[in-house]
Design a protein that fits this description.
Layout: H1 2-26, E1 42-46, H2 51-62, E2 66-71, H3 74-87, E3 92-97, H4 103-115, E4 122-125, H5 146-169, E5 176-181, H6 205-230, E6 234-240, H7 257-265, H8 272-275, H9 277-284, E7 295-297, E8 300-301, H10 311-325
Helix pairs in contact: 4-5, 5-6, 6-10
């Protein structure tokens, strides 16, 4: 049964990839126009040393934002800073170490950011891994698979620890924004119960990636509901960045790498800059000033998978996430925890 699920996940993933390629051939990425300057505003971008992440940082800097980049390797941050300032000399950016597989590292990142005394207007949860070999995250003493731990739960903790700053920085006229990078591949996953959220017997990297992105989408909708109920001046949306030629494909089978390279060469795959357009749109555009709880593709709100709208599952995932991370379920409760 597990083997058949493994095969199904692989076939479903490549089918979605094929559909995305056809879409991208027929409809080019939306051009970003009339984006206002956001001088004095501050953003955090995780994975800012990656392809789409770096292009997102570059665009935010060009529009006057002070950007804090969360990077796992400090040397990568330095090279990104140099590359961005080469094309945007007046860019305001800082790099802080951030390992999303470690709750302690996430908390230290938040403490270092808060010590700067800056507001926070935009949080872009961009970092992630795809189709990686099985590896437990350090933050969970080996109990969490790395796709789920990094792509979803690490960003869950980061968002919760920064929520108070986003709340103070947002206003009714101009909300603070949370932008979660999901994927069209979330559609391969269906979860009947949170008990199924970990692959316990037969690990499938394709299924694990899809499941982590479904969790991102479910979590976005549940957080939106809680932000509205608490009347926080914060919006939260998630997105598919498009099928872009990035380093995320480093774990792709060597047999398929030439196919991927050919698709990129023919222009079927988007460039990292084109893949960054939807995150940038959701971070800066006045068109989505009070839009929240939506899933975007190519800068347009579109339906996500049927499973992602399961309210029972959204709440169950939220409660499970709070239990794993030892955070209060109520976003208005004070957080008193020290991760080690």
């Amino acid at each position: 049964m597990d083997f058949l699920r493994h095969v199904k996940n692989i076939l479903h993933t490549y089918w979605i990839g094929f559909v995305c390629l056809i879409y991208q051939v027929l409809w080019r990425p939306k051009e970003l126009k009339d984006l206002q300057q956001h001088n004095g505003c501050v953003a955090i971008v995780t994975g800012g040393d990656g392809d789409i992440g770096m292009e997102t940082v570059r665009a935010l800097c060009r529009h006057g934002m002070h950007v804090i980049i969360g990077v796992k390797e400090e040397t990568n941050g330095q090279s990104v800073e140099a590359a961005i300032k080469a094309t945007c000399p007046f860019a305001k950016l800082d790099c802080l170490p951030l390992d999303l597989a470690s709750f302690a590292s996430i908390q230290k990142f938040v403490q270092q950011f808060k010590a700067k005394g800056l507001p926070l207007h935009v949080l872009v949860n961009n970092a992630g891994i795809m189709h990686a070999p099985f590896a437990p995250t350090a933050s969970s003493s080996g109990s969490l698979e790395s796709h789920l731990g990094i792509n979803y739960l690490g960003h869950f903790v980061l968002t919760r620890l920064l929520l108070d700053m986003l709340k103070r920085s947002g206003t009714k006229e101009r909300c603070a924004r949370i932008v979660n990078v999901s994927s069209a591949v979330h559609a391969i996953s269906t979860i009947d119960s949170i008990k199924e959220i970990q692959f316990s017997k037969f690990y499938c990297p394709y299924g694990a990636y899809g499941q982590s992105k479904l969790a991102v989408t479910l979590g976005t909708y549940e957080l939106d509901r809680r932000l509205r109920d608490a009347e926080f001046p914060i919006t939260v949306n998630c997105l598919h960045p498009g099928l872009a030629d990035t380093n995320l494909f480093r774990h792709l089978s060597p047999v398929l790498q030439p196919v991927k390279n050919l698709c990129a060469w023919l222009g079927f795959m988007w460039t990292p800059s084109q893949g960054a357009r939807t995150p940038v749109f959701l971070s800066l555009s006045e068109e989505v000033e009070h839009t929240s709880g939506k899933y975007f593709d190519n800068c347009q709100a579109v339906p996500s998978s049927p499973s992602s709208y399961d309210v029972r599952l959204q709440k169950e995932l939220w409660n499970w996430s709070c239990e794993i991370t030892q955070l209060p379920c109520d976003i208005q409760d004070e957080i008193n925890i020290h991760y080690t």
